[in-house]
Specification:
Largest sheet: 7 strands, mixed
Number of helices: 21
Structural class: alpha+beta
Number of strands: 9
CATH class of one domain: Mainly Alpha
Order of helices and strands: HHHHEEHHHHHEEEEEEEHHHHHHHHHHHH
Bound molecules: flavin-adenine dinucleotide
Radius of gyration: 24 Å
Length: 568
Amino acid sequence: MNYQPQTADTFHLIAHVLRAPGQLQALAPFAEIDADLMQQVLDEAGKFVGEVIAPLNRDGDETGCRFDAGMVTTPPGFRDAYQAFWQAGWPALAAATEDGGQGLPAVLEAVLYENLSAANHGWTMAPGLLHGAYECIKHHASEDLKAQYLEKVATGEWLATMCLTEPHAGSDLGLARTKAVPQADGTYRISGTKIFISGGEHDLSDNIVHLVLARLPDAPPGPKGLSLFLVPKFYPNGSRSAVHCERIEEKMGLHGSPTCVMRFDEASGQIVGEPGKGLNAMFVMMNAARLHVALQGIGLLDAAWQKADAYSRDRRQMRAPGRGKLAAEADVIAEHPAMRRILDTQRAWIDGGRLLAYRTALELDIAKHHPDAARKAAAQRWCSLVTPVIKAAFTHQAFYGGSECLQVFGGHGYVREWGIEQNVRDSRVAMIYEGTNEIQAIDLLVRKILSDGGATFSAWLRDLRSELDDGNPADQRTAARIDVLEEATMGIIAAAAADATGAYWVADDYLRAVAVLLLDWAWLKIAREAPDHSARWAAPAQALQRWVMPEFGMRIAIISAPAVALTA
Ligand SMILES: Cc1cc2nc3c(=O)[nH]c(=O)nc-3n(C[C@H](O)[C@H](O)[C@H](O)COP(=O)(O)OP(=O)(O)OC[C@H]3O[C@@H](n4cnc5c(N)ncnc54)[C@H](O)[C@@H]3O)c2cc1C
């Protein structure tokens, strides 16, 4: 069973719950965007994903990528699908019109990538970094470099990579050793080995643009000594660069995406941005990539849920409790509380996650284009604090919730026939790349909350409260949870003044507390706009309160434990 985008649900969340069209019309570049246009783009995207990309998923896993003498062949149909994808303008959806893009809002691109990842995670890894690479080149490259590369990357005619990781430098990129030696003509010679590079080599596009972190000869040690360079596979004059793929990794999943070891043999490249500011330039790309990975998690969980839901409506075992004992047939397993609970709970994560991720995409555009400085600042707070939370929480849920969906199949989920085991294998990596989930938790608590004594965080909590309805009991319950989180946060900040170690021990629990609180908050909004309080929306709303929200209390208890117990 192939994944099918559920465009009507997505449109409901964007148009009616988030009221995106009205918000976007307040931003100059999107003044012409209306609900009809958004619906049209979503319908077309859903059609392309369902008809062209989803059918390649199974073969992508089973055939995988092949490596031979430095060349990578992607699975059957992948190249044709990619060529059709960029020629139809999909990678350029949210790129500016002056760069060859369509100038549409980020939220439409978010839905496109969620759907693509759900349909075929392996294939989607290739274009997944394009928008980040586009932003990075647009904001940091010289005019000369932009003239050569920006439009090709914006349109997706040339794919791009992010070359950060080295054998000894993973989470700690400050340890990277790849060298960049300046040449008399203003170019640089790049030498070193990068590992785990997604799409480092392939046959999908005619050229590949590598963005590479490397160190100048006089650079200080650590992250401040890193600069960013652009090295293509082929230079614009057609000559081949000295960048070679040495091998591709054998992996647990994601077989449709080549994960490459790349060797740079004094490859000629050009600097992007200022010397020593490489991480800064790369940050643009990494932030876009983190939202993208959160959307991967949500999409992958939805794909697993669709399979489990369909299977549970067909498979019959025993009679469900409370049903007449004289019924001739066993009930479908969807009637059994244990299975219903799994399905409704995962649905709560998916729809709540969608709302939060789409809202983040919307806030990205508001942060860039809103005329009011206070609204802009609020949008920046949202993006900065929510991005690590949704990256970690929804990639975690894709794997653990996907495994719950596999459970719905019993033994039939563990064998290959239904394809659910591929979902579980493929999703595991999203907890690791783009900054591991532990790094996201430290980013949230230590870098973004402790660093200013909780000032930005408290302002953001005020923003959340301001969208609640004081007269509604469900909203009052969420408001009380926000108070509890704020108090626990102040406790951590006070303890960190003497010793910050305790914060590192509880950062993961802290991020989970914020994640489930955000889910609660998102579902208030979804429930408010649910058409006729239909079971489609009511069942996951109830499952959230019954089966997920108790975790909030547990995490608060863990993070509020005295520091001495945390560090012992
Ligand atoms: C399929 C795949 C595709 C990838 N694609 C790319 C790509 O396109 N480009 C690229 O540059 N890289 C890519 N990566 C690399 C990926 O980003 C790294 O694997 C990741 O950053 C973690 O680095 P590491 O594997 O060296 O683990 P390590 O950094 O060694 O971490 C090991 C464990 O220690 C934990 N840890 C490390 N430091 C800390 C800390 N300070 N506090 C708490 N815990 C810590 C980690 O969370 C992790 O659990 C990819 C990896 C995979 C598997």
